[in-house]
Amino acid sequence: xxxxxxxxxxxxxxxxxxxxxxxxxxxxxxxxxxxxxxxxxxxxxxxxxxxxxxxxxxxxxxxxxxxxxxxxxxxxxxxxxxxxxxxxxxxxxxxxxxxxxxxxxxxxxxxxxxxxxxxxxxxxxxxxxxxxxxxxxxxxxxxxxxxxxxxxxxxxxxxxxxxxxxxxxxxxxxxxxxxxxxxxxxxxxxxxxxxxxxxxxxxxxxxxxxxxxxxxxxxxxxxxxxxxxxxxxxxxxxxxxxxxxxxxxxxxxxxxxxxxxxxxxxxxxxxxxxxxxxxxxxxxxxxxxxxxxxxxxxxxxxxxxxxxxxxxxxxxxxxxxxxxxxxxxxxxxxxxxxxxxxxxxxxxxxxxxxxxxxxxxxxxxxxxxxxxxxxxxxxxxxxxxxxxxxxxxxxxxxxxxxxxxxxxxxxxxxxxxxxxx
Length: 421
Ligand code: ASP
Ligand code: MG
Description:
Layout: E1 2-6, H1 14-25, E2 32-36, H2 42-54, H3 58-79, H4 86-103, H5 111-119, H6 121-136, E3 141-143, H7 163-180, E4 182-186, E5 189-191, E6 197-199, H8 205-216, E7 220-225, E8 246-248, H9 249-258, H10 268-273, E9 277-282, E10 291-294, E11 304-318, H11 326-338, E12 343-348, E13 352-358, H12 361-371, E14 375-389, E15 406-412, E16 415-420
Parallel strand pairs: 1-2, 1-7, 2-4, 3-4, 7-9, 8-10
Antiparallel strand pairs: 5-6, 9-10, 11-13, 11-14, 12-13, 14-16, 15-16
Bound molecules: aspartic acid and magnesium ion (MG).
């Protein structure tokens, strides 16, 4: 059994969807589960809708729903000529449901909960279109709602998978369907025990593919991307970037952890535990060999560069000049965990603790407020985090970052990490 995952770029317009159809058509004899993300940049559009909902901007909400409607209807129209085809009423239904979600009056709903309730429509709309298109060209394929299978806790926007329940349902209910025909479903979304939609975190569809593959004991997972495979650097920034033929699970986990954007950090673990190979292939160049992630790949010999922009560097010291030791560290870490500020790199000296994190203003502001009574906090925004994995050269900061000042420098294991501002 195989699991394929197609991201937003691979279904961004009608031609892209046709290309996906072309790829899937080559596997009609196989047991195949296809996971699809929201089309193009529609998850960002839906995030705007969440904002408009939260700020109670009625016109803005209507305008965004109209834009979503125009976008998806245009693709559906391009793909399916018959105006009476049920795809059009299916899309209407979904969009009406979404309208109800954003127009409803709630007594007490958290931002994160409503976020998941709204954001899931990107994947729902997208999979409907791709499925109906494929059926219209005579591919035997069935649409299922991923929320019936991926069960999570109620940690909205970052749902934690309930593995035992998920595996049981996938094996008992989903597997027999895949034995009969190709099945298509959504990435990124799940459901908690109260029947609320949850999500697995932005870019979580790869993780969905890994979860399904794990539960199905799949042979392999293929992520179809607009790049040739996993590269040792972003080719948009590094002209000399090259594709990595293969990576072993552990190094892939490390690269993902440091922010290699091609691999979602949580994706590898479930695959590794069942020795399921991950292929990263190009949907543009279907027959080209991409990157294989497995347990037999030799250790990487190439230097890998990973750049994360939009970073904030926080330096935290005590007001009473006490050392940053266990007790203070524990209070500081508690605050990071409580306000969900994820640390990308950290360092501590006698009297100060530094952490580089993604710039999520609202969460950082709240955390600083909570810590301000006991700590002095300095904040430097607009930083870049450069990770050089397998660093070979002494000074390997790439030219285009050379004008920046090194704020933090750390070498641990195979990674050299620099925070630049
Ligand atoms: N559509 C979601 C996102 O853009 C999930 C994904 O694409 O993996 O974050
Ligand atoms: Mg996406």
